[in-house]
Amino acid sequence: MTNDPKPGCPMHAAPYNPATEGAQMSFDGRMSYGDYLHIDQILSAQRQLTPAHDEMLFIIQHQTSELWMKLALHELNAARQAIAASRTPEAFKMLARISRIFEQLNNAWDVLRTMTPSDYTTFREGLGQSSGFQSWQYRLIEYAVGNRNLAMLKPHAHRADLTALLEAELARPSLYDEALRHLARAGLPVPDDVLNRDLRQPWVVHEGVQRVWETVYRDPAQHWQAYELAEKLVDFEDYFRRWRFNHVTTVERVIGLKRGTGGTGGVSYLRRMLDVELFPELWHLRTTL
Ligand code: HEM
Ligand SMILES: N[C@@H](CC(=O)c1ccccc1NC=O)C(=O)O
């Protein structure tokens, strides 16, 4: 019997066999989709600790977030390298992608929001003291962009490999440091104490830096690349802030004002994090422009 499509009513046609047009159907000794993507490994990592229906949603939500964070870090590191080499147009493309990744993470909250407090209490106890607070990729993103709080190293002290990773990040100039070094190379008067700062320390708001960004924003045509870089950074922070806001709102909706499993006050802690500014001068200049 052939599998040629029959003319006439599709209801009576034999099911179409894509092999007739050459679809590869045999994978003995050839690399398949699942082989390339290690699908077996990924799909065997959803191990519920309870029989609760919604625990699967919770696990997959976090695992997919960690995958997107992995890509965000990949792009962030490449963007930083491109800026350091003054290849800014290349960096713009990667920074735009990072913002889209955060948009993706922001949209994902819509799925998690379908979990009610009643649903969550069916498995919350099983989580013990684990919490997103201990996500090393999240901390690495914060450190990479410039939010360097050394206190956040502590939950990783039991893992020498992760501590080394985070420490290595703290020794590198952040995305914001690289942006400012780029401005200095372009001839803008970035203060020396900024260019020679102790990279491990948290960023401290600097009036001289704000003045440099003001110069850029007062005459964008004259400083087009710096202006474009600034707006890409603001765009990224905008999406990052939305992630934090979605997180705290979802948390309040699900656990109210209960303490977090990670030991913080929960919503009170997350609200405090809403005040963190990654690139403060880029926001402040808008008031003084
Ligand atoms: C029902 C869902 C969720 C609840 C109830 C929740 C709750 C919390 C709470 C209470 C904290 C504060 C730390 C603590 O004491 O535990 C926290 C931190 C955190 N959570 Fe969630 N979370 C949820 C979903 C998520 C998701 C989907 C992610 C994505 C990866 C995530 C990532 C984080 C991160 C990165 C932190 C640290 C934030 C910071 O230090 O600024 N959480 N979460
Ligand atoms: N901190 C959350 C627990 C929690 O959300 C969580 C636990 C384990 C793995 C990821 C988590 N997500 C984000 O914090 C709570 O207090 O319920």
Automatic annotation (TrEMBL):
Short name of any one Pfam family annotated for the protein: Trp_dioxygenase
Catalyzed reactions per annotation: L-tryptophan + O2 = N-formyl-L-kynurenine
Family stated for the protein in its record: Belongs to the tryptophan 2,3-dioxygenase family.
GO MF, one annotated term: metal ion binding
Gene: kynA
Keywords, alphabetical: Dioxygenase, Heme, Iron, Metal-binding, Oxidoreductase, Tryptophan catabolism
Protein name: Tryptophan 2,3-dioxygenase
Entry superkingdom: Bacteria
